[in-house]
Amino acid sequence: MTANPHRERPSDEANSKQLAIARREGAAYQEGLRVMATEVADTGGTQQAGDYIVGFAQERAEGMYHLRGEGKLEWMEPEDENCHLEVSVSDAGDGRFIPYLTIYATLTKDSGEVVGPTRMPFVWHPGLYHYGANLKVPGDGTYDLAVKIEPPDFMRHDEVNGKRYAETVEVSFPRVRITTGRE
Questions:
Q1: Of the candidates 152, 178, 1, 175, the residue with the CA atom closest to the CA atom of residue 91
Q2: Which UniProt keywords apply (predicted)?
């Protein structure tokens, strides 16, 4: 078995104990991602791309709360949307969710229709933080999913482990079976 080249090493910013705690947090997140992608969603999957583990899940379009002013949350049902697409991005070294990313997703139906690119905003979810949006797609069928992750502008701590997430990453999930509708 080879060592994970993305795994963090102890440094003056994070000792072995701190890194082990981060890996446990990442393992819990990865278990939540597995459940979302394989047990809850209609379809889903993951793959590693450079410093990232990129996952997706697809379900029927669903309602969500939107902030409409200080202390005012409003439940919004999907209108014309018939697909809810979720994207997860986590660190390939420790498995933890990565916040503050700019992510775009494009779905291309096997017949050639293209939906997107669509920005995937952060979605707070009680089971798994992720990025996602409701979309209007041409209907049930097979689609290619392309995910683009821009390099984040957040600061990185640690001279040993901090040089990461500096380039745009694009990931493809070919032949994804999409089931449309509304929950």
A1: 152
A2: Signal
CB 106 within 8 A of CB 114: yes
Task: Look at phi and psi of residue 158 and say left if phi exceeds 0, alpha if psi is from -120 to 50, else beta.
Answer: left
The answer to whether residues 136 and 123 touch, using CB atoms and an 8 Å cutoff, is no
Domains of the chain: 16-178 (2.60.40.2480)
pLDDT at 5: 65
DSSP helix/strand/coil, 166: coil
On whether the CB atoms of residues 117 and 150 are closer than 8 A, the answer is no
Q: Which of 91, 88, 81, 72 is nearest to 23 (CA)?
A: 91
By the 10 Å C-beta count (0-12 exposed, 13-18 middle, 19+ buried), 68 is classed as exposed
> Do 95 and 27 touch, CB atoms closer than 8 A?
yes
Residue 23: CB atoms within 10 Å = 17
pTM over 0.90: yes
Which helix H or strand E contains 97, and what residues bound it?
A: none
Q: Which residues of the chain register pLDDT less than 70?
A: 1-5, 10-12, 161
Among 36, 130, 146, residue whose Cα is nearest residue 88: 130
